[in-house]
Each structure stands twice: as C-alpha cells, then as structure tokens.
Predict the structure.
Amino acid sequence: QVQLVESGGDLVQPGGSLRLSCAASGFPLDYYIVGWFRQVPGKEREGVSCISSTDGSTYYADSVKGRFTISRDNVKNTVYLQMNSLKPEDTAVYSCATRCDGRWVVRGLSRGYWGQGTQVTVSS
C-alpha cells in the first residue's frame, strides 16, 4: 500500500525545535522530489520546503529560511524537516507530498502522494 505518514508534530514553546518525519511505504521515496507544506484554517496552503531527488538541492520559503532544514534518509525511506527557532506564526498542520510548491523548479520526479498531516503548535 502506497502511503506517506508524517509524525513529530507537537506543542512547543517559541524558540523551541521540532523534527518532522515523512515516512514512505509501498514505494521508494528517493525516486521523487518531496515537499513540505503547511496550512492554517482559513488560509491557503503554503509551500515550506522542498528537496530534489536527483542532486539534493533544497528550497525554502523566505519565512523559514535559516531556521528550517529539509533532509533525506534513503535507507529509512524518510524525509525530515528540522524546525528550529520556532515562532507562533509557524503554527499549522504540516503535510508532506511527492511534489513541491510551484514557485520552485525542482529536478526530479513528482507524483500526487500526500500524507495526512501533523499538527505543530508554537505557543507559550
């Protein structure tokens, strides 16, 4: 069964860190580009980060650049999003997908697999 499962969301204080995981099953995740997206109720979904499947290039929204890092572990068939210096405005449901935000031209295959999302809440 083809599946993407996110985990790692939690309640964290401002300035804290979280690492989100996007684990794939049923297919080789390293074949595809992988993007992280986030959405707050009532707002449009925002592309947060993306990683290529060919050359390892990474892409970040300006709002997270310098604080978030995307990476792959091909052995574990997983992509991670390390989030540091979290701010209240980072609060959202974070989802991963085998595609990336259209603002970036990313080398590699894309497909329409999506995870169910994980909640990140940044609050004191």
